[in-house]
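Subject: for your reference before the review

Hello V.,

The reviewers asked for a structural picture of the protein, and I figured it would be easier to keep everything in one thread rather than splitting it across files. Below is the amino acid sequence we used in the manuscript, unchanged from the supplementary table.
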Amino acid sequence: MNDSAIKKMREFNRYYTVWLDVMNKGYLETGRAWPESRVLFELYLCAGISATDLCRHLNMDKSYVSRILGKFEKQGLLTREPVPGGKGLKKIRLTQAGRREAEQIDQRGNQQLRDKLAPLDDETCGRLCEAMAFIEKTLRCHDKER
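And here is what came back from the structure prediction:
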């Protein structure tokens, strides 16, 4: 890969993270930073996941995820259930309050994209989705197994 391609990709990444507004403390008006919101949403999507699998899935540092999970547990957003014969392994499940907050993140994320993409016509949105699907497919084909 040449330096020009790397520069273009990095420019796009910087633009896209700003465009998605993930750099602010109150992502999607939740009062949470983006990593916390993402962890909560992944727990919503993957009920009963272990902390180890969550870290692997998100490619996040174990100690950072552990601090987030501890915070969520104190706030009553999740519970941890021991897995029988799992040698300390615990399934993480959102409480009703945790599910409500994750659903709010989901709804606000959808609305954010509706608002940002509203000026685009259907053809342009279709082309944009095709380009995103191409990017994801290309990267997944060469992604290391985590």
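For the response letter, the relevant points are probably these. The longest strand covers residues 78-82. Helices lie at 3-19, 34-45, 51-58, 62-74, 96-117, 122-141.

Happy to draft the paragraph if you're swamped.

O.
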